[in-house]
Amino acid sequence: MKPRIAIAGSGFAGAVLARELAESGLYKVTVFDEKAHVAGNCHTSRDEKTGVMVHHYGPHIFNTSRLDVWEYVQRFSKFGHYINRVKAVTRKGMFTLPINLLTINQFFGKSFNPTEAKAFVATLGDSSIKDPQSFEEQALKMLGRELYDTFFYGYTKKQWGVEPSTLPAAILKRLPVRFNYDDNYYNTKYQGIPVDGYTAIVEKILDHEEIEVKLGERLSPEAKDDFHHVFWSGPMDGFYDYKLGRLNYRTLSFERVDAEGDAQGTPVINYCEQSVPYTRIAEHKHFTPWEEHSKTVLFKEHSAFCKPGDVPYYPMRLDDDKTKLRGYMNLAEKEKNVTFIGRLGTYRYLDMHVVIGESLDLAKACLAHNKAQGTWPTFSGLPLEKDDTPNPATHSSHATAKVAATV
Ligand SMILES: Cc1cc2nc3c(=O)[nH]c(=O)nc-3n(C[C@H](O)[C@H](O)[C@H](O)COP(=O)(O)OP(=O)(O)OC[C@H]3O[C@@H](n4cnc5c(N)ncnc54)[C@H](O)[C@@H]3O)c2cc1C
Question: In a 10 Å sphere around its CB, with 0-12 CB exposed, 13-18 middle and 19+ buried, how is residue 180 labelled?
């Protein structure tokens, strides 16, 4: 009899790990998902009304710089050519994002070259701010009031539900401002969209004789007594019945709009003004430009605080959360046969390629530990770095690296 492994969650984290362990020939793996479908938040399906491949939990664009991850996903699906280019509606009109040379030239009515634009933007910054303490101060120091107010203030406030002046400065250090005409949203080497959607990929990953999939079934933490090992891609605080308090998330809701033809001419448009209740509109047919559909469907994305019962989307990582997280990590480290994986299991915002890469690395580590008779890792990736402690200057503020990425 092979040892039995249980995995909570059939998102990319759980599915890739299941496949790697099954392929080792050493284990029998059961994957549980409380949802009625596999693929977790990456779930896609063909919309009955329009025939468009719809991303049910928000638009997902596959991108990575890891060749092994890119090759891994291609084993299970053909990818169509797709480069993500985002537009923004602002009080000053429509621009391309991330802020690039075209954005700067159109915004200021100039025709700068890269050197001139860099020098010009440097003059906009608020030089009176020496040591920025918040997202807002950092933005004002880097970009000045006009660009900040137009592109960042309203969007960030809608996305996170707090004043950007209470967000930590560190978030904006990664702000993607480009002084050339490159408006590719990502800096990664490989990018594309799977032609049959993400759910089809995950179904194929899970299609292995040593993997059993149980949908509509929640794995309980007590299962650790029945299995050789449990991998948990559900919320880490949920595993402990929230006994140290709930970790905070933002949740999303999607308002559907049906239309004929081409409604917005591009996949994603951000709405930067605070007065517009949604953050962005995605027209899903444009994620598969090789397909043709006479009808179209769009989703307006609304962001809100995640209450019990809502779907958790973006970990907020408040300073208070980090304190609770440290406590949950201490509990997790005492477990003998449980590993916390993926975005909910480690309470980090993670792109698909990162989750897949971590599961590939984790499987290798587990199999190597086997040979050395060592214990398996507690986390697929550390939920908190050792020096990632609450910052007294921004206590109770909402800290997350996703802010910059979503602007
Ligand atoms: C709005 C949005 C847009 C995104 N866009 C992109 C993008 O463009 N590109 C990109 O690379 N990434 C994107 N991501 C990130 C991507 O969604 C994640 O990387 C991915 O979903 C993480 O996979 P996972 O397996 O860790 O978690 P999930 O996909 O959340 O899967 C976890 C699964 O576990 C199940 N589960 C939980 N607890 C239990 C339990 N006890 N028993 C049984 N089942 C359980 C859940 O039902 C869920 O299906 C986006 C995320 C969001 C929120």
Answer: exposed
pLDDT for 176? 67
For residue 37 and ligand 1, the question of a CB distance below 6 A is answered with: no
The protein residue with its alpha carbon nearest to ligand 1, atom 44, reads 33
Handedness of CA 348, 354, 356, 359 (dihedral sign): negative
Q: With H, G, I as helix, E, B as strand and everything else as coil, classify residue 198.
A: helix
- Answering whether pTM is above 0.70, one says yes
Q: What does the CA dihedral 376, 25, 346, 244 come to, rounded to 10 degrees?
A: -70
Per-residue pLDDT tens for 251-270? 999 999 999 999 999 999 99
Determine if ligand 1 sits within 6 Å of the CB of residue 355: yes
Q: 13 C-alpha vs ligand 1 centroid, how far in Å?
A: 8
Q: Is 312 in the pocket of ligand 1 (CB under 6 A)?
A: no
Distance (Å) of CA 367 to CA 15, 20, 21, 170 = 17, 10, 8, 37
pLDDT single digits (tens) 213-226: 999 999 999 999 99
Q: How far apart are CA 138 and CA 105, in angstroms?
A: 22
- pLDDT < 50 positions in the chain: 390-407
Any ligand 1 atom below 6 A from CB of 362: no
SS3 at position 187: coil
Question: Is 280 marked active-site?
Answer: yes
How many whole angstroms separate alpha carbon 402 and alpha carbon 174? Answer: 10
57 assigned to active site: no
**φ/ψ of residue 173, rounded to 5:** -65, -25
19 lines ligand 1 (CB under 6 A): no
Nearest to 309 by CA among 249, 387, 256: 249
Spacing of C-alpha 1 from chain mean position: 38
Which residue in the list 326, 349, 361, 388 is annotated as catalytic? 349
Do residues 50 and 295 lie in contact, with contact meaning Cβ atoms separated by under 8 Å? yes
Q: Give the Å distance between the CA of 10 and the centre of ligand 1.
A: 9
Q: How far is the CA of 249 from the centre of ligand 1 (A)?
A: 13
Neighbours of 396 (CB within 10 A): 10
Say yes or no: CB of residue 101 within 6 Å of ligand 1: no
pLDDT at 369: 86
Peptide bond into 98 cis (omega under 30): yes
Exactly one of 46, 75, 174, 256 is catalytic; which is it?
174
